[in-house]
Amino acid sequence: MRLTHPERVLYPGDGVTKAELAAWFDAVAGTLLPQLAGRPLSVLRFAGDRAPFFQRHIPGARGVATCDTRADLAALAQLGVVELHTAGTKRGFVACADRLTFDLDPGAGLPWARLRAAACAVRDFLADLGLVSFAKSTGGSGLHVVVPLTVPRPRWVRVLDFSRAVSQHFARAAPDDYTARPGATARQGKVFIDYLRNARGASAVAAFSPRWRPGVPVAVPLSWREVESSDVLPRYTLRALDAAAASERERQWSGYDDVRQSLSTSITARVSGRTPRQR
Ligand code: ATP
Ligand code: MN
């Protein structure tokens, strides 16, 4: 596909052009496409003049509701797509979820050690329920805890109920550390565990998506070992993440595709507190 205005700057602070973005998409396509394929896609687009805008349905581009091929990636670059966000489901079973994303948002200025502890606590809580999870940097200020779900895939109501119950559990058990309420004030000095990313139609930034933020950070898979041992919020940027570095990042989620787990009744009942917790 031919790029029009390849010289157009899509990330103004850093001078990353449409041509550079298209080349980067192509270079990391081997790791990026598996994160996007089949998933309903929302995007942030930048036209070069006004502020970027978030778009849930992408016009033109022959209905690229999902991004499945290198040609689709090129079409997205051509449209000035600067961030890629996906739903926790795939074409063919959109009434059900195949992943949960707990979006951990720290209050302004919260030390990394507190965010790290929160992410590990969510991981441990889920592990106690028998659910394996994976960590992802967002390229922003927070972290995502990602939970793969396989058959029988839960419907969205169940997913949202569970997700809300987990967030509220933390807010009740440690109100000084967590909040289940959105808004900058509520999360001051705390971590907001945003469960609303797990509503039908919601999205979360895809692993290997660039962010339209200073330095052009990229959301990437992190291993739990890295999260635990890191003294700072791990940060990767588009210009530093070549194909080899992207593959190395992809390996941090090795085992993701082998996970077999779902939101069984025994799991959801334990969290919502409808039955006494059994060990
Ligand atoms: P951070 O770690 O900094 O919180 P993040 O990716 O979790 O990064 P945001 O960039 O604040 O958080 O939010 C991204 C998500 O919010 C998207 O996946 C999308 O669901 C939603 N979103 C973002 N911008 C818009 C918008 N303009 N309109 C509607 N939804 C949006
Ligand atoms: Mn967030």
Distance between the termini: 57 Å
Could you say which overall geometry the principal axes of the C-alpha atoms support?
globular
What portion of residues is helical? 25-40%
Class per helix and strand makeup: alpha+beta
Sequence of secondary-structure elements: EEHHEEHEEHEEHEEEEHHH
Describe the 3D structure.
With 279 residues, the protein is α+β, with helices and mostly antiparallel strands. 30% of the residues lie in helices and 17% in strands. The protein contains 8 helices and 12 strands. It has helices at 18-27, 29-36, 70-78, 112-128, 156-173, 224-229, 243-250, 265-272, and strands at 9-11, 16-17, 41-45, 53-55, 81-86, 99-106, 134-137, 143-148, 178-179, 191-194, 204-205, 220-222. The strands form 3 sheets. It has a 6-stranded mixed sheet with strand order 9-10-6-8-7-12. It has a 4-stranded antiparallel sheet with strand order 4-3-5-11. The chain has a two-stranded antiparallel sheet with strand order 1-2. A hairpin with a 7-residue loop joins strand 3 (41-45) and strand 4. Helix 1 runs antiparallel to helix 3 (70-78). The termini are far apart. Mean pLDDT is 94; it is low at 275-279. It binds adenosine-5'-triphosphate and manganese (II) ion. Adenosine-5'-triphosphate binds next to strand 6 and strand 11. Adenosine-5'-triphosphate binds at residues 54, 85, 103, 105, 138, 140-142, 202-205.
